[in-house]
Amino acid sequence: MKKLFPFNKDLGILSFTLFLLVLELNCKAQNWSYKSIPASYLPTTANLSSYQLKANSAKAGAYDLTQSLPSGYVTDGSVDYTQYLQKGINSNHNVVFPNFPVLINDKGLALTSNSTVIFNAKSKLILLPTAVGNYHILGIYDISNVKVYFPVIQGDRVKHTGTVGEWGMGIAIQGSSDIQIFNPKISNCWGDGIYIGKSKTASKNIYIAYAQCDNNRRNGISIVSVDSLNLIHPLVSNINGTEPMAGIDIEPNGNSDNVDDINIDRPITFNSKRGILLVLLALPGPQAKQVNIKINDHLDDQSITGFHYSGLKKTYNGSVLNGSVKIINPVWKKNVTPFGHPGSYDFGPQITFSNVSIIDKDGKNVAQKGVLDKIKKDLNSESKVSIR
Length: 388
Hints:
Elements: H1 11-29, H2 45-59, E1 63-64, H3 82-91, E2 94-96, E3 101-104, E4 109-110, E5 115-118, E6 124-127, E7 134-141, E8 144-149, E9 152-154, E10 167-174, E11 177-182, E12 185-187, E13 192-197, E14 203-209, E15 212-214, E16 219-223, E17 226-232, E18 235-237, E19 246-250, E20 259-265, E21 268-270, E22 274-279, E23 290-296, E24 299-301, E25 305-310, E26 322-328, E27 331-333, E28 337-340, E29 350-354, E30 357-359, H4 369-378, E31 385-387
């Protein structure tokens, strides 16, 4: 049975939290256009070599999913092989995808616990155009102990046959633990490239290295509910189409979600409406919440806003968020608005900005003391916000 994302009851919250942001940047966003990703931002062979060695080793004893395809199968990605591939995945813990593109319908493929999944050099999942606004292409639901090497996923946004919804995900991780994904390449999804959230419980112990998410419609990577996430050197680019259009969006849906022990190392966000978006508006409530987020060496290049913190309400029926958010060595480059900051921060965790660089269109670092003091003032909480 196809799993449904737990968004419906929270759509009002999401829409409301971003309404003011739309007003601020709507006209500017209309001038957006797709840009080629600079070659210097792409991961190198050396970056990926250790993962490739592990994938090659795992491939030796894995089941080739090509064997599950019907006789006379095609290799041009024009025929839907979802049911055949799913049967092979269900019957084998370690699998290798066919070394050619395959067409997948909007039921998607669901992985299983204690499995290793390897994509060959020419493997690719292509979504058959659909009208539904809620799908996953690769689903990781309520399972544990999974490794996925080099998945390549192409969504249907160019040929999507419907007009509603924004939850068509390339990879959806919900209620799962001990998940490792290496160099996923995800493009053209109706919603997010990667979605990390909960089912009955938050996802836990997620490790994603060298993700590449390009031209997805809503977000590149959405972080909604997770305990312990390591996101290593992601490259998120050209996110456009429907709000919030962020490279990386850290946004719990409600007080039952968790966003704790999140480490984002060397992220690159490029040419989107927002580079990184932090929205904790819905998290405070009756359950006390610990929030610990570290974002190290963020580079945003040419997004309309490099880093956007969306404000909290001034009062809540619940506790102040504990923990800390640390933004270390960010570089916000050639933005219309380097830092976006509506609203209060009084219910937020401690937040520290260290060694901020703001590069203008002429290549000059304009992150002078006055600019940083304005960030602190606009967050409206002298005791909670520090600039170093």
